[in-house]
């Protein structure tokens, strides 16, 4: 839902698969989009923009605390009203040790019914992402532009691939694997690796909470 490089093609029934008909006789095809999205590409682009917006960046660490962090279990989970049925928690029951097949089946059905909570990763509050002001970003972008202009004659260069992975200014770029991929680091504290062969992002990692 956030991969803008694929332009939301998964929302279209491009293979013409027969999904049947609706109650009114209309044939089921591609996903019906909301009024604010004229096409799948606009739909995923707006979702991506919302995900990477400042307001989400300011609140995302609180969600991480609830789902993967220190508020997932224990006293902090109680304070946050973040408690679930005991079978939802990883390790609450060892199904391999249950000898009674009827009891095991009952437990499996309950687990599938309630769902399972992800593995707890963090045991302390997740740091809030520090946002870079727009003026600082523009200033930094200008500096990078001046440096690139003095580096070489761009008229002899031809673009191989366009990508818009970083939310903020890119601070470093490196060619990896004998020209197979490109690694970039931005002021958003993200490391991105793109394949020049496929034109797709291969890896993304958070370097710090800077």
From TrEMBL:
Source organism, top-level taxon: Eukaryota
InterPro entries: BEACH_dom, BEACH_dom_sf, BEACH_Domain, WD40_repeat_dom_sf
Domain BEACH span(s) in chain numbering: 1-129
Entry protein name: Protein FAN-like
Species of origin: Diaphorina citri (Asian citrus psyllid)
Gene (name only): LOC108254284
């Amino acid at each position: 839902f956030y991969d803008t490089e694929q332009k939301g093609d998964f929302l279209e029934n491009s293979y013409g698969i027969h999904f049947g008909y609706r109650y009114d006789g209309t044939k089921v095809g591609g996903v019906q989009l909301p009024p604010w999205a004229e096409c799948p590409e606009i739909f995923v682009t707006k979702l991506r923009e919302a995900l990477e917006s400042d307001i989400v960046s300011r609140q995302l660490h609180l969600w991480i605390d609830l789902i993967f962090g220190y508020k997932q279990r224990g006293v902090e989970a109680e304070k946050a009203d973040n408690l679930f049925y005991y079978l939802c928690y990883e390790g609450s029951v060892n199904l391999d040790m249950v000898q009674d097949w009827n009891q095991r089946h009952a437990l499996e059905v309950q687990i599938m019914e309630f769902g399972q909570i992800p593995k707890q990763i963090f045991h302390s509050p997740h740091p809030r992402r520090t946002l870079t002001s727009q003026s600082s970003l523009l200033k930094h972008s200008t500096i990078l532009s001046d440096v690139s202009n003095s580096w070489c004659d761009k008229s002899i260069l031809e673009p191989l691939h366009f990508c818009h992975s970083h939310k903020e200014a890119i601070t470093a770029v490196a060619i990896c694997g004998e020209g197979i991929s490109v690694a970039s680091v931005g002021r958003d504290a993200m490391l991105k690796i793109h394949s020049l062969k496929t034109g797709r992002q291969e890896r993304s990692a958070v370097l710090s909470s800077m």
